[in-house]
Design a protein that fits this description.
InterPro entries: Ig-like_dom (IPR007110), Ig-like_fold (IPR013783), T9SS_type_B (IPR026341). Pfam families: CHU_C. Keywords: Signal. It comes from Spirosoma radiotolerans. The chain is an all-beta fold and 792 residues long. It has seven domains: 288 residues, no CATH class; 61 residues, no CATH class; 71 residues, Immunoglobulins (Immunoglobulin-like); 72 residues, Immunoglobulins (Immunoglobulin-like); 71 residues; 77 residues, Sandwich (Immunoglobulin-like), CATH 2.60.40; 80 residues, Immunoglobulin-like. It is 2% helix and 44% strand. The longest helix is centred in the N-terminal third of the chain and has 6 residues. It is elongated and about 175 Å long.
Length: 792
């Protein structure tokens, strides 16, 4: 026996718990993403919400959804839904039980029409959309703080453009459900699976329901907000988890292939649960959607389960009947005044079908569920009766596309065994077109008439309106605006008019499928553009030429000494180029404007206005005029060896000393004078690399020895008041020491003779007399000894 259950908010009333006055209590729901089938990326988004019927639910409107990229949670877009159609009640097989427990629920559907650009949705990891809202029922027994727990609708979908090819997909579809409850201790099953419009494999598993995500800086008591994953799970109460959402033996499980739920409950209560439905194509997961519901477990009093018998009027013992469209069949159940009746079509309760018989005009599998009028007990299910209405679902499906001048669309009518077909186009029968399919190559309005020979029924399919899409206009433009390739360069060609491109040069395929091609050689280029429908268009051929390379020269620029010289006229080839650099104005180089230094000067000529210029470079040298810092004269002693160390500026590179006598290297900047014996004059001539020249001279006086006078008279008459030592300047290291007659030092000059002896000692005049002295000149010469007379 199969019984169906729905998540019930009424457990709150059973427990006597208060409801939050301002909350719209969510009972369950899911999202669906349905491809429109006309333009790639065009989708219908459907949000199905099961709500407790209340004034708050009546005010529930559409919410805002967000689409995110899975790889990095980047927000791609937001959009809003609006309510479509009339709200429908959830129908219970046992209305008595529903009324006793105040089980009154509604189904609200919210939809949005969106267009996604395929080129923007091409990430291999796919995308997801979410819708968040509040609140759940306060009486839920298996999660913590349910009244403050929110709800997240969640759906994943694959990239629309994969490997430059369109990828068509719709998410799983879920039909209507019945409102039922679970009887304690009785095996219970519930059809919770869906169907996939593309024929993809669906895999089901139990998961933890998602809570609403708190958003930083926002009031998280609001009904709806947009935020990216990850989304928090609800907090399970102790002892509960995704695989033990309803205590039982067994606990609540889902069939991984069919989505059927099953449980034999062992504990009363209201329990929330969630099922993840994964979508696989060729063994690869491409999508996912979550369904979130709740079940109420009640104690059903023991009683005899009703067992209704059913039949089709005038067809006893025949569980199947075929009728023509417009006719009806009457289904009858055994009559019992103590029973409630609820008829179902394809396992879904039919509104208002609560009598012992039912007249039907629609194809389907019919059953009746009966229950006692005065007791909340288990229900009884009848056997199935199948009603097939000829032509009631006569439709025509189309695959393919009509391009501007080409294309074929295959039209397929509903297949009906033994039926005869006749196709029509624009109200005219098509001769010989009498099978269930038709290859259409022209636009128009097509349909088929199906004739069922046994009953004589006829049915017309819906109309397929076929149109051609606009012609694909392929074009090529160059990025430069010119159809020529610059020397040693390439030209970017940009194609337009399609989604994919095929480039050709001189009839041979080049490049990839992108809209951009780098042309590297001359030739005739075309591009074939393919649009979203696979229609093609070829561009007008575009001839690309190659610009010949040019040789650019710039005459040399003579170096100059110092900036205060005339300007120089620059000469470059070929004509028409541009000179640039420091000190350059037009075709003139000004050393004064440029200043001292080495200045690159360029001459740039473009082979064509859009090309990068070819550049020739010369160095303009404004050299500094050298300077020499050298003493005019120098005194030394005979036989001395020493170096001349002038200081130079202006970067001199050539040196020449005249004369070369005594010099170790007359071409050195700082030569060494060796063993000088006579007075001599040297001239130094220096030049830098530009040829800037300067000269300087130095005279060297050579003393053989120092002359010490025999006497001097420090009497203040201005003559001979200090001891003069002619030639002492040639001996900078000389030391003169004077002694009194007792051999005591009364004067010592130290190195050099900077302070001549003035006949005093410690500021007092020395007496007249004879004084001995020693004179040390250089270490290699002997000490000079003698006596001098101090006269007053």
């Amino acid at each position: 026996m199969r019984m169906f259950t729905f998540r019930l908010l009424a457990w709150l009333l059973i427990l006597g718990l208060p409801l939050t006055a301002q909350a719209t209590h969510q009972v369950g729901g899911q999202m669906e993403m349905r491809a429109a089938g006309d333009v790639p990326g065009h989708f219908r988004i459907i949000v199905t919400q099961y709500l407790e019927s209340s004034p708050q639910a009546d005010r529930q409107g559409g919410g805002t959804l967000g689409i995110f990229r899975k790889r990095d949670n980047v927000l791609m877009m937001t959009f809003s839904t609006r309510e479509t159609g009339q709200r429908q009640p959830v129908i219970y097989a046992n209305e008595y039980c529903a009324e006793q427990r105040n089980l009154k629920f509604i189904v609200a559907t919210f939809e949005a029409d969106i267009q996604l650009t395929p080129g923007l949705y091409n990430d291999s990891q796919g995308y997801y959309m979410s819708y968040q809202t509040r609140n759940r029922n306060g009486g839920i027994n298996n999660i913590v703080n349910p009244i403050q727990t929110g709800y997240t609708f969640y759906l994943e979908f694959p990239a629309i453009l994969q490997n430059n090819q369109l990828f068509t997909n719709s998410s799983p579809h879920f039909g209507a459900i019945n409102g039922e409850y679970v009887c304690l201790g009785d095996p219970f099953t519930f059809p919770f699976g869906g169907t996939d419009p593309d024929g993809d494999e669906l895999r089901y598993s139990m998961v933890t329901p998602l809570n609403q995500k708190a958003i930083s800086g926002q009031n998280n008591n609001t009904q709806n907000g947009v935020s990216s994953a990850p989304y928090p799970d609800v907090s399970w109460a102790s002892g509960f988890d995704a695989n033990n959402a309803i205590p039982g033996s067994p606990t609540l499980k889902v069939n991984a292939q069919t989505g059927e739920l099953s449980v034999t409950a062992t504990q009363l209560g209201l329990y929330v649960f969630a099922v993840k439905v994964e979508e696989y194509r060729n063994g690869v997961k491409i999508g996912e959607v979550r369904r979130d519901f709740q079940f109420l477990v009640v104690d059903c009093p023991p009683t005899t389960t009703p067992d209704p018998a059913v039949q089709i009027r005038n067809r006893p013992k025949q569980p199947v009947t075929i009728i023509c469209e417009g006719d009806s069949a009457v289904l009858m159940a055994s009559v019992n005044d103590n029973w409630n009746y609820q008829w179902r079509r394809n396992e879904v309760n039919i509104a208002g079908a609560t009598g012992s018989s039912l007249s039907v005009k629609t194809s389907g599998q019919y059953t009746v569920v009966v229950s006692l009028k005065t007791a909340c007990s288990k229900v009884g299910n009848s056997e199935s009766l199948l009603v097939d209405v000829i032509g009631s679902t006569a439709t025509v499906s189309a695959s393919g596309h009509l391009c501007a001048t080409t294309g074929t669309i295959k039209l397929t009518a509903t297949r009906l065994p033994s039926a005869a077909y006749q196709w029509y186009k624009d109200n005219q029968a098509l001769a010989g077109k009498t099978t269930d399919s038709l290859q259409a190559t022209q636009p128009g309005n097509y349909w088929a008439v199906l004739t069922y020979p046994t009953l004589g029924c006829q049915a017309r399919t819906d109309t397929a309106v076929l149109d051609r899409s606009p012609a694909v206009v392929a074009e090529i433009k160059s990025s430069s605006g010119f159809n020529r390739i610059c020397p040693q360069d390439s030209l970017s060609l940009l194609g337009s008019g399609g989604l994919l491109y095929n480039w050709q040069k001189d009839g041979a395929t080049v490049g990839g499928s992108d809209a951009k091609l780098m042309a590297r050689s001359a030739g005739t280029y075309t591009v074939k553009a393919t649009d979203l429908y696979g229609c093609e268009g070829t561009s007008v051929p575009l001839a690309i030429t190659q610009i010949a390379p040019i040789v650019v020269t710039l005459d040399s620029i003579p170096g100059v000494c110092g900036p205060d010289v005339p300007v120089h006229t620059l000469t470059g080839s070929p004509a028409g180029g541009v000179f640039s650099g420091a000190g350059v104005t037009g075709n003139v180089f000004s050393p004064k404007q440029a200043g001292i230094g080495d200045h690159p000067v360029t001459y740039t000529v473009k082979a064509s206005p859009e090309c990068t210029g070819t550049v020739a470079t010369r160095m303009a040298v404004v050299a500094p005029i050298p300077t020499i810092k050298l003493a005019d004269s120098l005194t030394t002693y005979k036989g001395n060896t020493f170096s001349l160390n002038p200081e130079y500026t202006g970067n001199p590179s050539q040196f020449q000393w005249v004369s070369s006598t005594y010099l170790d290297n007359p071409g050195a900047a700082n030569p060494t004078i060796t063993n000088i014996t006579d007075d001599i004059t040297y001239t130094i001539d220096v030049k830098n690399s530009t040829g800037c020249e300067v000269k300087d001279t130095i005279h060297i006086t050579v003393f053989a020895t120092v002359w010490v006078p025999d006497a001097f008279s420090p009497n203040g008459d201005g003559v001979n008041d200090v001891l003069e030592l002619p030639g002492i300047e040639a001996f900078p290291d000389a030391i003169l020491t004077i002694f009194n007659r007792w051999g005591e030092v009364i004067y010592s000059s130290g190195k050099g003779y900077a302070n001549p002896f003035d006949g005093t000692l410690n500021g007092s005049s020395l007496p007249m007399g004879v004084y001995a002295y020693t004179l040390h000149t250089v270490p290699e010469k002997p000490v000079i000894r003698g006596r001098l007379v101090l006269v007053r």
